[in-house]
Write a structure and sequence with these properties.
The protein is α/β, with parallel strands linked by helices. The chain contains eleven helices and 13 strands. Strands 5-6-7-3-8-9 form a six-stranded mixed sheet, with helices on one face. A four-stranded antiparallel sheet has the order 11-12-10-13, with helices on one face. The protein is elongated. About 35% of the residues are buried.
Length: about 300
């Protein structure tokens, strides 16, 4: 498709008897942030490596900016930026030196001051890489990915190791890059991050894309809508389940029940009061992307 920067269809990759990627399809549109989500063993990392041209699929087709990752590797590299998972670099080099070195490799103007200020790393420009914090190393990784002013960015967990404020600063940088027209494939284990930043998300499980769309589309299609979280008992949970026919769970102290009709709420509260349980917790909320993700794949742990 003309407006796609990444097109992948029927991707297959096995490691011996293990089918890591099993017929996966993916499309990233020009100018969007697309977040790829999946638990450990889902095939997400293998998929990213194939898209980046680091690992060749057993079968399937990949087009990056309309080109073949293996036949047009040098042309693609000049138009793509990558932050690998667990970014690492030469230990005895400063951020300023690293950016200047990359600029020389790409044959582009040196922009170390601009890039370091963009990610709030300018004050550490003369500090050796080995002495940077984990979050600061991630920031340098983003700077190096931007040296060649790429059209497409692969950001593999770019906010790992950042404190909450630094994470939000990185979100602002990603938004700015999107506003400049850059296309971004983002992987993250922070579901809130995907919900806030991504135009569309794809959920991978068992080597397949099991859901794709805007965060709200996925919530609407795969979620159960509103739920009531209230202090209760196992006996009350069973009564609620029978009377409403809704999904209801009890964790030993609280009842969580899917709300289908507004009239369910006062009925449930009446049942709790009649049981003699004191209501110390009461929350009515809409499901989030994380709630839906956990239902679909069971874990966000890597």
């Amino acid at each position: 498709m003309a407006d796609s920067v990444i097109e992948a269809s029927g991707l297959m990759k096995a490691y011996g008897p293990i089918q890591a990627v099993n017929g996966l399809d993916l499309q990233v549109r020009k100018g969007e942030v697309f977040s790829l989500l999946g638990p450990n063993g889902a095939g997400k990392t293998t998929t990213i490596e194939m898209l980046e041209g680091l690992r060749k699929p057993d079968s399937g087709e990949i087009r990056i900016l309309g080109m073949n990752p293996w036949k047009d590797e040098s042309r693609i590299r000049r138009r793509v930026g990558i932050i690998p998972q667990g970014f690492n670099f030469v230990q005895r080099i400063t951020p300023q030196e690293a950016i200047r070195y990359f600029a020389t490799l790409f044959g582009v103007p040196e922009r170390s001051e601009e890039l370091l200020k963009l990610v709030d790393l300018y004050d550490m420009r003369k500090t050796y890489f080995t002495n940077l914090s984990g979050g600061q190393k991630q920031k340098l990784g983003l700077c190096l990915a931007l040296v060649n002013d790429p059209e497409l960015l692969f950001l593999d967990e770019p906010t790992t190791g950042l404190d909450p404020q630094a994470r939000r600063n990185m979100w602002d940088v990603i938004r700015k890059l999107k506003a400049e027209g850059k296309s971004i494939l983002l992987t993250t284990h922070y579901l809130e991050e995907a919900e806030v930043l991504a135009d569309r998300v794809g959920i991978v499980s068992g080597g397949k894309m099991i859901a794709s769309g805007t965060p709200q589309e996925i919530i609407d299609q795969h979620g159960s809508g509103r739920s009531l979280f209230v202090t209760g008992s196992g006996e009350v949970a069973e009564k609620v389940r029978k009377m409403t026919g809704s999904r209801c769970s009890f964790d030993g102290r609280h009842i969580s029940v899917e709300i289908r009709e507004n009239t369910d709420v006062p009925m449930i509260l009446d049942l709790v009061r009649e049981s003699g349980v004191e209501i110390s917790t009461l929350q009515l909320r809409e499901e989030t992307l994380e709630d839906v993700f956990l239902k679909m794949v069971g874990s966000v742990e890597e």
